[in-house]
Structures are given as C-alpha cells and as structure tokens.
C-alpha cells in the first residue's frame, strides 16, 4: 500500500487544473469520503476553521467570502447562521456529520486552538483529529491530548527541528518542495509527513518514492484510480 490520501477541503476539483468548486462544504466532504472508500482508503478529510461574527467556529479557508461565494465582505462580518445560508458549515456540524472519519483541522487565524481543543476533547475525538497550522505558535497548547502538525510552504530542516521541539505528531510540507532528505529527517525524528496539495498521478508517485506517509488531494480519483483494485 502506498501513501494514504486525505480529502483536501472535500472533493472540490474535477481536474488537476480546474478551479475548486464547493470546497469545505458538507457535500464536498461526503463526495471526498465516498471517493476514498471506493478506492480502499479510510475516510479522512481536511478542512479550515475561522471565527464568525458571533464567535462561533465555521469551516472556510479564506478570510473573505468573495472567492467561494461571490459575495464581498470578510467572514468576521457575518454570523454563523448567515454563513450557514451560504453553505458554510459550523465546525461542530462537520465533526458530527462524519462519525468514523479522521479530521485534519487547519487553524487559519490566531486564537482558535483552545476552543478547538475543548470541542474535540468534549466529543471524544482526540484519536481521530490532527490540528495543523502555518501559525506554529497557535499549536503549542494542543498537546499532549491533541495531535498537531506544523504546516509550511517552504519546508526545511528547521521545520523538523521545530516540530520535535514542540512535540508535534507530523509535518505538512508543500509537495513541490518536499525532498527525500526532509522526509528521512522527519521519519528519523518520529514524525509523519503529509504533503499538500497533490492532484496528479505524477505528483502522487513522486510522493510515494520519497516515502511520504499521506497526501492531501482535492480529488482522490485524480491520483491512482487505476493503481488500486
């Protein structure tokens, strides 16, 4: 078995070069999990968390609504109920909708870690959740109860050192910049390596050659349908 696949923002891209559609929605997560199961993978989804105007946690990548909804304005100017009408789910709704799935939760802004941790612990999801962020300092208070991963667009050996010092479970490097040296250093330090965002068979095969543990993909079917029975 090769590298595992994590459904990145749900199944939200038809081809490797098409625009994302319906990302971070319940429908996209349903489709992503269905694709993974078809291909023999465990259900695993990645999504992004921000705070709405009413302080509730919602699932959306961008700080503004324009790209995903076509509406101007920042997420923080809308209540969670208003965002729900636009198809943007609550964090808790995603957790409750997919029993048995593994959750990769990316914190997109400061000040979310404590609440995310409390929600996960309150639902008994500590064994099914991994919290990540480019904002490494936000992750410091999650362990040891909640596993966490350091995300980086410019992965270097510093990423591995920082992950070890912080007690992280994994690193999440950009796949185009991942190297065998980085992967080997991470594994030697006891860290998993999950690379983002892989949307072609060629890129997936390269990740397997490097020994990456898992990849994030906008559409798992683009990677290796013909390689799995």
Structure description:
It is a single chain. The protein has one domain (4-227): TIM Barrel (Alpha-Beta Barrel). The protein has 229 residues and is α/β, with parallel strands linked by helices. An 8-stranded parallel barrel has the order 1-2-4-5-6-7-8-9. The protein is 32% helix and 20% strand. 44% of the residues are buried. The chain is built from 9 helices and 9 strands.
Short recap of the structure:
The protein has nine helices and nine strands.
Any key phrases for this structure?
single chain; 229 residues; alpha/beta; TIM Barrel; 8-stranded parallel β-barrel
The overall strand count is: 9
Question: What class do helices, strands and sheet pairing give?
Answer: alpha/beta
- Spell out the CATH superfamily: Phosphatidylinositol (PI) phosphodiesterase
CATH fold group: TIM Barrel
**How large a portion of the residues is in β-strands, by DSSP E?**
15-25%
Number of helices: 9
By CATH, the architecture is named Alpha-Beta Barrel
Q: Structurally, how many domains make up the residues?
A: 1
Mean pLDDT: 96
| Tertiary shape | globular
Strand order of the largest sheet: 1-2-4-5-6-7-8-9
């Amino acid at each position: 078995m090769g590298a595992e696949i994590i459904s990145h923002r749900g199944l939200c891209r038809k081809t490797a070069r098409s625009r994302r559609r319906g990302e971070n929605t319940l429908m996209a997560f349903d489709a992503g999990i269905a694709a993974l199961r078809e291909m023999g993978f465990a259900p695993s989804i990645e999504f992004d968390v921000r705070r709405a105007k009413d302080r509730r946690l919602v699932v959306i990548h961008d700080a503004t609504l324009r790209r995903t909804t076509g509406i101007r304005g920042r997420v923080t100017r809308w209540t969670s109920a208003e965002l729900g009408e636009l198809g943007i789910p609550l964090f808790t709704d995603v957790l409750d909708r997919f029993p048995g799935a593994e959750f990769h939760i990316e914190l997109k802004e400061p000040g979310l870690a404590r609440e995310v941790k409390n929600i996960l612990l309150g639902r008994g999801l500590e064994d099914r959740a991994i919290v990540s962020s480019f904002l490494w300092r936000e992750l410091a208070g999650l362990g040891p109860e909640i596993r966490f991963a350091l995300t980086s667009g410019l992965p270097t050996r510093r990423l591995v050192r920082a992950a070890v010092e912080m007690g992280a479970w994994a690193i999440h490097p950009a796949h185009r910049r991942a190297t065998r040296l980085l992967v080997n250093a991470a594994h030697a330090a006891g860290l998993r390596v999950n690379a983002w965002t892989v949307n072609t068979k060629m890129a997936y095969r390269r990740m397997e050659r490097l020994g990456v543990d898992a990849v994030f993909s906008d559409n798992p079917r683009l990677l290796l349908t013909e390689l799995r029975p």
